[in-house]
Write a structure and sequence with these properties.
This protein has 475 residues and is an alpha+beta fold. It has two domains: 259 residues, no CATH class; 143 residues, Cytochrome Bc1 Complex, Chain D, domain 2 (Orthogonal Bundle), CATH 1.10.760. The chain has 15 helices and 13 strands. Strand 5 and strand 6 form a beta hairpin. Helix 1 packs across helix 3, helix 8 crosses helix 10 and helix 11 crosses helix 15. The longest helix has 21 residues. The radius of gyration is 22 Å and the shape is globular. The two termini are 34 Å apart. The N terminus is likely disordered. The structure holds heme C (HEC) (2 copies). The site of one heme C has 27 residues, from helix 13 and helix 14.
């Protein structure tokens, strides 16, 4: 049965709180103007940092509304959009707001990216590093993403219909595992048929804790693990992603996003405001977000641009504050109740070859986010590089420097939290599209450069496998 997923109810107390916080922010903003420290990308002092993170958290959780509205602060949503706030897709990240900031709702489980397949093929054929990053070629009518919601008076583009197909797998010792994969379709496409060469890529919102640690890792450290031509012959290449850093105006190593196609947290935030919520900012000037020229009513709708925000719906200052908030979220720590599994598990992790991509110590010994006062040993479990994971995981979309089969190794820190989220129905599962309901399923999907590692995993004797999974479940 197709599952139709939407997101609607909001906690009234949270909404009232967020609007109060936004009003305070607006007063401070108009009184003092942009802070020089944040503008220059420098370090704010501890107390102003905490205040900024608080305000940034309020913007992150605020439900944006359609323009025009008497409140100039948070209008301009849509006309087409996927969610009204960052927190609707990335919930549970707003712990700084206390109990009031906890969303009472299930997160939006995924978005549907759309891009013409042809560019994916071109990319796949050339593995070299000499080609510049590509922006996926969007669907001419629907744009780069299917917006399944719209403000009053406009029609949502359609709904994401997911049907799960099942495949049986047998492990070395005969144990059967049922894997599932999504069959995705756009139901009731309102603006006509999608272009026939369009690939659809279901993407789940990744967790956002610890991103200041990810942002701080030295480029040279990431590059030291890259082996694009597999010179060491271990079957694992690892290519860095590159993208334009939109503020600095130059191409840099890209470490964010499922395909390592985003250079900075500011760029990701601006992109999310535009693509997911239909909000403009200085380098994404369209108030209508992802609406295409073929969606004329959407393109010509009134927007929420405001002089106080530099003529856009979201100001650079607001983007800075959201980034300060994101950087304040500490890195997740191992749940700590798996002492027995721990030492053997770590050895197995190395022996099975997992650590070749899920690098344990890329971040070194780091402070786990600015709010933490104790220095902690943060373990990332990622090389932040792109790997060909085989056809089974491929989406056929070339993005940044990634081909249609490449994905950035996701950090495994906080895996225990994700398993808890799956158990509570807050997320559907692991991997870029949420297809894996367990760690075991996630590993069994590893193809391409991950295939050898997967085969070692499936040869494990049952007690070894149990120990290994217990170790991973504690991360
Ligand atoms: C409609 C759902 C949705 C909304 C709303 C949304 N996001 Fe996301 N976010 C996603 C998805 C899906 C991804 C993964 C995209 C990809 O890489 O393909 C993502 C990725 C990210 C990442 C990259 C994380 C990493 O580890 O690389 C950051 C940071 C982020 N979002 C922040 C935000 C902020 C800030 C907002 C609000 C301005 C926001 N998001 C709004 C769905 C959403
Ligand atoms: C060749 C590099 C590589 C190797 C080797 C590898 N992985 Fe991965 N792993 C990835 C990539 C890339 C993804 C993301 C794939 C996707 O989302 O489609 C991933 C995803 C995962 C996920 C899901 C994480 C999440 O939050 O969604 C888990 C769990 C995981 N790997 C565990 C392992 C284990 C355990 C091993 C060893 C048996 C291993 N991996 C070996 C690259 C690798």
């Amino acid at each position: 049965m197709p599952v139709q997923l939407g997101h609607d109810c909001f906690d009234v107390r949270r909404r009232a709180f967020v609007f109060a916080a936004l009003a305070v922010f607006f007063l401070i903003w108009t009184a003092s103007g942009p802070s020089d420290a944040a503008q220059a990308g420098g370090q704010p002092s501890a107390s102003s940092g905490a205040a900024e993170a608080f305000i940034g958290g309020a913007i992150y959780s605020a439900d944006w509304i359609a323009a025009p509205n008497v409140s100039d602060g948070a209008d301009g949503l849509g006309p087409l959009f996927n969610a009204t706030s960052c927190a609707a897709c990335h919930p549970g990240q707003d712990a700084s707001l206390g109990a009031l900031g906890r969303p009472a709702v299930q997160a939006v489980p995924h978005v549907l990216r759309l891009a013409r397949r042809s560019s994916g093929v071109r990319r796949q054929q050339s593995v070299g590093l000499d080609l510049p990053p590509v922006t996926p070629d969007p669907d001419p009518r629907y744009g780069a993403q299917l917006q399944d919601r719209a403000i009053p008076g406009h029609a949502a583009e359609g709904q994401i219909a997911v049907r799960w197909a099942y495949v049986k797998w047998r492990l070395g010792d005969g144990t059967e595992v049922n894997l599932r994969l999504p069959r995705v379709r756009v139901s009731s496409p309102v603006y006509g048929p999608l272009s026939p060469d369009v690939a659809m890529s279901l993407r789940r919102p990744p967790p956002l804790e610890g991103l200041s640690v990810v942002a701080a890792i030295d480029e040279s450290r990431i590059l030291s693990n890259a082996d694009p031509e597999d010179r060491d012959g271990d079957g694992i290449s690892g290519r860095p992603g590159y993208a334009l850093d939109e503020r600095r105006g130059k191409q840099v190593l890209a470490r964010f996003g499922w395909k390592a196609s985003v250079a900075s947290l500011a760029d990701q935030t601006a992109a999310a405001f535009s693509l997911d919520m239909g909000l403009s900012s200085v380098r994404r000037g369209l108030g209508s977000g992802d609406c295409t020229p073929l969606q004329a009513a959407c393109r010509s709708a009134v927007d929420g641009a405001s002089a106080a925000k530099g003529g856009f719906e979201v100001s650079e200052r607001e983007i800075d504050l959201v980034v300060v908030y994101l950087e304040s979220l500490p890195a997740p720590m191992p749940s700590g109740d798996t002492k027995v599994a721990e030492s053997r598990g770590a050895t197995q992790f190395a022996q099975l070859g997992c650590a070749a991509c899920h690098r344990i110590d890329l971040s070194g010994t780091t402070q786990g986010g600015v709010r933490s006062e104790v220095s902690r040993d943060v373990r990332l479990f990622s090389d932040l590089l792109l790997h060909d994971m085989g056809l089974g995981l491929g989406d056929g979309i070339a993005e940044g420097t990634a081909s249609g089969r490449e994905w950035r190794t996701p950090p495994l820190w906080g895996l225990s939290l994700r398993l808890e989220d799956i158990a509570r129905g807050r997320i559907q599962g692991l991997l870029h599209d949420g297809r894996a309901r367990t760690i075991e399923e996630a590993v069994l999907w590893h193809g391409g450069e991950g295939a050898a590692s997967r085969e070692r995993f499936w040869q494990l004797a049952a007690p070894d496998r149990a120990n290994f999974l217990a170790y991973l479940s504690g991360l």
